[in-house]
Amino acid sequence: MPEIIDFSMVDKIIKETVAAIEVSKASLFDIAESAKSVQKRMQSDFEQVCEEVGRVIETVDRLEANYKKARIHLMDVSRDFTHYSEEDIKKAYLQAQEFQIKVAVEKEKEKGLRLKRDELARSIAKISEMSVKAEELVSKVDIALTFLSGNLAEFSQQMGGLQQKQLIGGRIILAQEAERKRVAREIHDGPAQAMANVVLRAELCEKLLKSDRAAIHEELHQLKLIVRESLQEVRRIIFNLRPMTLDDLGLVPTLRRFLEEIQARETETTVIHLEIHGEEKRLPNSYEIALFRLVQEGINNAHKHSHATQIKTMIDFLPEEITVRIIDNGVGFDYQKILNEVSGKESYGLLSMKERLELLNGKLLIQSAPNQGTTILASVPIE
User: Fold this and answer.
1) Phi and psi of 315, rounded to 5°?
2) For the residues of 268-288, what is the DSSP string, one character each?
3) Cβ density class 305-314: b for 16+ within 10 Å, e for less
4) What percent of the chain has pLDDT over 70?
5) pLDDT tens digits along 218-257
6) Cα–Cα distance between 208 and 210 in angstroms, integer?
7) What keywords sit in the KW lines (predicted)?
8) How far is CA 349 from CA 261, 352, 373, 374, in A?
9) Nearest alpha carbon to residue 176 among 376, 351, 12
10) DSSP class of residue 252?
11) What is the number of other CB atoms lying within 10 angstroms of the CB of residue 269?
């Protein structure tokens, strides 16, 4: 006789889980707000230090000009013994020495302020990154609470049915895609915050043009390189979250770009091949999303976990179905053991692939063993 599930116990466990997540959400929110407050204070300190650096530079320029005049006066006095006494020479010497000391003191002050400015810039970047991560975690916790805080009794009763399972899986996947779109749009529309420190430093460089043009030119060149690298990184993040080309161009062009970017970063460690068989054609959006995420997860697993040096992806467009094969020569893994580790990242990725395909009436087959590589075979029927 099959074991009867005590749904009241399931309901109690889920409610306790919801309560624990609520507490965690509040803590994460406090961390995010604290990080914003610290970032704002650091930004204010950074701007003040930049202003101080500008003022010190102006002071150094003025003192150096006075020191230069004092040295010229000292030379004139030292050569003309008829018009100037020994006391006049001593006075001119002391005046030149005083300006020299003041210049050295101000330059040392400028050096200290520059170090403080650079340290503040690094700290602002770190606290900004922590703030973004905390906000992302709060958003993900909100999604979990949305599903867990629903009708728990009804949820427990529907767990056993395939139709209900597909419904729940579909809602989760749609929520994931909606979240990816939201984050991608925010990053795409608002990169100004990430570049704020670069802009401030560039403005400071403009003030420094009068004193050391060669050094400023080099610093501006480095700033341009940083901006270009940051822009490339933002574009890469946007592509990973939600490739715009998936909607505009379709599955195959998006996969080509995705694999080319990975290959470009891993030219010395991994060789990636893509083969397309049959006539390429556009598929319904849900199909293209599922198949792209399948390849993305498979390639990332092969690269990060299997440490493969050869990865081959083959897509076959057949009259009644489309098949995807991902083959690597990595270290492999015990497939059943990974699935049993429900809390592991690898098991989550594999289950996500399987659920996406099941929603499209597709099938997923994974063949792997330690030190024998991995083969992922997926097939989805198409009308």
Assistant:
1) -120, 125
2) TT-EEEEEEES------HHHH
3) bbebeebbbe
4) 70
5) 777 777 777 777 777 777 667 666 677 888 888 999 999 8
6) 5
7) Kinase, Transferase, Two-component regulatory system
8) 21, 5, 17, 15
9) 351
10) H
11) 10
First to last CA, the chain: 42
DSSP 98-165: HHHHHHHHHHHHHHHHHHHHHHHHHHHHHHHHHHHHHHHHHHHHHHHHHHHTS-HHHHHHHTT-HHHH
Bridge partner list, 322: 317, 380
Evaluate whether 341 touches 347 at the Cβ level (below 8 Å): yes
Number of alpha carbons in the 13 Å side-chain half-sphere of residue 43? 17
DSSP codes of every residue in 181-216:
HHHHHHHHH-TTTTTHHHHHHHHHHHHGGGT-HHHH
Q: How far apart are CA 82 and CA 68, in angstroms?
A: 24
What pLDDT does 80 receive? 75
pLDDT, residue 378, reads: 94
Calculate ∠ Cα 80-83-89, nearest 5°.
Answer: 65
All residues at 6 or more sequence positions from 34 whose CB lies less than 8 Å from its CB, including other chains: none
Against a cut of 0.70, is the pTM above it? no
Query: All domains of the chain, ordered by start, with CATH?
Result: 7-241 (no CATH), 244-381 (3.30.565.10)
Please compute the mean of the pLDDT values over residues 52-80 and round it to a whole number: 85
